[in-house]
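Moderator note: this is an archived Q&A kept for reference. The question asked for a predicted structure of one protein chain; the sequence and the answer are reproduced below.
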Amino acid sequence: MQVALILSTTPAQLTLDPACQPEVTLRSNLAKLILDPTHQPDLTLSPRLAELTLGSACHPEMTLSPGSTELTLDPARQPEETPAPNLAELTLEPVHCRPELLDACADLINEQWPRSRTSRLHSLGQSSDAFPLCLMLLSPRPTPEAAPIVVGHARLSRVLDQPQSLLVETVVVARALRGRGFGRRLMEGLEAFAQARGFRRLHLTTHDQLHFYAHLGYQLGEPVQGLVFTSRRLPATLLNAFPRAPFPRPPCKAPSLTAQAAPRAPKGSSLPPPPPLPEPLTTLPPPPGGPPPQSLLETQYQDLRRRPIFWMEKDI
């Protein structure tokens, strides 16, 4: 007994389970395929009509004629392939200006670096124009009712003692869109964003994307310290939370290392003289040459997991 399979569309390829049946390709002029059910219990259809498995349960996207051996696919119910966003239509917007996209942005970052969702949302919620500031690379809305698609993310922080520098962190692009120029578009956008606000240098770290950043003009640099907040004054409520001293204390005095006259011993006692003071310590000169420089192949910096960290910077 044989089963007749009739396709109402003309898919590019029909792939069968290789464990039971070799691969079969349908040409554009082939409308019917005869299979032996004793050798093909499972049927998988790919790639454009989404993966379809024929098993004991009926799939909602296919119709089986009762009492017949025909299997008909409804092209109107097949999922459409989502087109890739147009690079020219992408926009860069701060997270705090689009709070309705916080969840989507958190999912994008957690896909790369898993973390508590609550903690991730709290971190994104700290974004502000006063820095740190989180930027999203957005694709236009596919439909008027839908929200924009979060394509990428990057975080900018001020740098300690370098008022014209920013530290770039948490750079990520959606997995399905990598290798198509979206990472370059994200970095070029945040460079223009920083330059328009008076900053002249960007710093970042990477484990394994040295060549990507090198192609964008970044060079190896020295470590910098990013600032969690940039307020010059602590709020009074925070200062009042610390306990105050109940009474003024005298200033602490460092012990003197100069020789002092030994106190005179009372008559009739023979105390030994005090031991001499130790010789003053001398500071050894630093080793010649300093720390070994980092290169694109090795670096002296490591994270807590002992993975290499490459510090890079670029003048914008």
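Archived answer notes: The chain is about 15% helix and 20% strand.
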